[in-house]
Please model this.
Amino acid sequence: MAENIAKINSLSRPPVVVILGHVDHGKTKILDYIRQTKVAEKEAGGITQHIGAYQVVYKDSKITFLDTPGHEAFSAIRSRGAKVADIAVLVVAADESVKPQTVEAIKIIEETKTPFIVAINKIDKENANAQRVKQDLAEKNVLVEDWGGKVPVVEVSAKTGQGIDSLLDMILLVAEMEELKSEDGTPTAIAIESHMDKRRGQVATLLIQKGVFKINDWVSAGSETARIKSMENFLGKTIEQAGPSEPVVVLGWDNAPTLGEKVFWAGSREEARRLAAEVAPRIGTLFQENLGQNLNEKAISAPGRKTLNLIVKADVFSSLEAIDQVLKTIKSEEVAYRVVDYGLGDIAEGDIKKAVAMKAFVVGFHTEIYSAVSQMAEREEVAVEVFQIIYELVENVKKKMSDLLEPEINRIPLGRLKILAVFKKDPKSQVVGGKVTSGKIKRGALIDVLRNNQIVATGKLSQLQ
Model:
C-alpha cells in the first residue's frame, strides 16, 4: 500500500475547472474552442471519444476541464460537477444577461463555496452589453472586480476566440491563489461518467482526487469492486498510472460505479470487498430508493389506483440519473409509475422477458433495439420506445399513465326519439324507425334505451336516414 501512495504533498496539482451557466450561453462552445486550440493536434490525433473531461496545456501548466451537460434536466449532475471542481467558470451571454439557469449556477457555486470566475460570452455580438450583465449579477449578490467586488470577470467570444487566453490566465491565477496541493493518504477518485461499451464491457471515467492509481490495482466504488485491467487518458492512449486531477478511463468493472460515486484504492481483493461491504448497506438504487416519493404513498392506498410499470435502459448513468430526476416531477392522485428494472446498454431480450413478467413498458434513452429484439417484443405484445430527448420520454410516460385511466364521459342531452318500428334486430345492432319528440338526434351520438323510464340498453347511433 505504501508504495502506491504518492508522497507528493508539496507538489501543486492541475486545477479542475467546471463551466456552468444558462443553456445556449456558450458553455460548450467555450470548451470546444479551448479543446481545439490548446490540445496539440499531433497528440490528440483528433479526440475521438467523449469521456466527460479533458486536459489542456497552457503556458506549461495543465488544466483539467469537466465537460458537464447543459440541459436543465441535468441540474443534479452539474451540482455534483461543481463539488468535485476547484474552480467554476460562470458563463453569461452578453446579449441575454442573467437567466434562470444562471441563478441556479450561482446557487450551486455558493453552496459548494467554489472559487469562480465570470466569463461574459458572445461579446462580439452587436447587441452585447457587458455592463448590463455586471449590473444584473450585482442584483444577485455577485459583485465582479470592476464593480467593487472580488469576483474576477473576463469578456470572451467563443466564436472568435477573443479573451479565451485571458480566461485561461485568470484560471491559473485563481489556482495559484488557492494553492492547490496533492494530498497524502489512500488514493481516491470520483466517477464522472460510466457506460456499457459493446467491445470492452463496463467502462468508467474517473477523476483522480489524490494519490496514484495503477494498472492491476484493486478499487472499491460503493458496493462494487474491480481490478483495473487497463487505463486510458482523454486522448484514448493507454497509460500505466494516473495522478491527481487527471481524468482517466478505467476498464475492469463487472458493474460500473454510478455518477458521483467515490472510488477508493485497495491493497488487495479482500480489502476491496471489505470496503464494499461497509458501504453496501447504505447504497440505494437510483430509482427505487425514492419509490415511495415517486408513487406518492398517500395516494397509493387509494382504492382503484393504477400503476404503470417501467423498464428503463440508457446509454450512461448520468442519463439514468437525469431520467430519475425528471420522472419525479410527474404528480398524480389517480395513477402512478414504478421503475421495476433499469440498466445501461441497448434493449435486449432479457428486458423483453422481464417486461412480459412484470407487464411493463420498456423505454430506452440514447440506446438501440435490434430487429430480433423488436420482433420478439411484437410477438410478446410488449410496448418498446426509444428516445433521444429526455422530455419526449417523460411526455410519453405521462401519456401511457393517462391511458390507464378510465375515460371520463360528460353527458350532454341532445334529444329524445320515440321508437315506432323495429326493422332488424341482432346481438350486435338494431335498425329502428321512430319520431323525434324533443331536441335533436345526431349520428355518432351515444344513446340510452329506456323502458318505463329505466335504462335497458346503451349504444351508439351509427347511421341516420
The first strand starts at residue 16 and ends at 21. The chain has a mean pLDDT of 82.
